[in-house]
Amino acid sequence: DAGVTQSPTHLIKTRGQQVTLRCSPKSGHDTVSWYQQALGQGPQFIFQYYEEEERQRGNFPDRFSGHQFPNYSSELNVNALWLGDSALYLCASSFWGGTATYEQYFGPGTRLTVT
Amino acid sequence: QKEVEQDPGPLSVPEGAIVSLNCTYSNSAFQYFMWYRQYSRKGPELLMYTYSSGNKEDGRFTAQVDKSSKYISLFIRDSQPSDSATYLCAMSGEAGNMLTFGGGTRLMVKP
Description:
heterodimer; A: 7-stranded mixed sheet; 4-stranded antiparallel sheet; 11 strands; 50% strand; B: mainly beta; 6-stranded mixed sheet; 0% helix; 55% strand
């Protein structure tokens, strides 16, 4: 049973560029959440997708956008990159409405470096 | 002030010691409390989950929640070098909703 997968593993971008990160949820999960983890910090919630809609959003600017596909996979897009966007981007999946709705399983993350 | 505070450590203990990790929080709406373990350059792994106040035990791990004090703890018995990692507390107001994390405590268990 494959867990949460993310691609790419590492990415280096230049300030001002745009980036797309991808996530495939754990089998049987229908909800995807994205988090940003700066070095030495805890993850910060970006947004959550369920039924292809953004269900919740954290305190991140509109430069951060996302999408969920009918197969429940998801993309995180960041426009106009700046140095402060350098971080580990984590995807977490869960099953909405089940007895274990609280369980969010994290992928290995995509490490983004902006130069 | 952050919603969830966690001592960053590092916390260094000898193998076999009992480890106590703690978080305090300010948002009284939090009802779901979780502990995650994160190894270097890996994603967080869910260790323990507790709903509302009380204790929960799973093997060498015990999670405690005191909502009246807004204080949660994770105890690790008979700590092993393989327990060396960063431990993150996380909480949410509703099941499945956004998680608010502490900054993490780095634990080192020395053989």
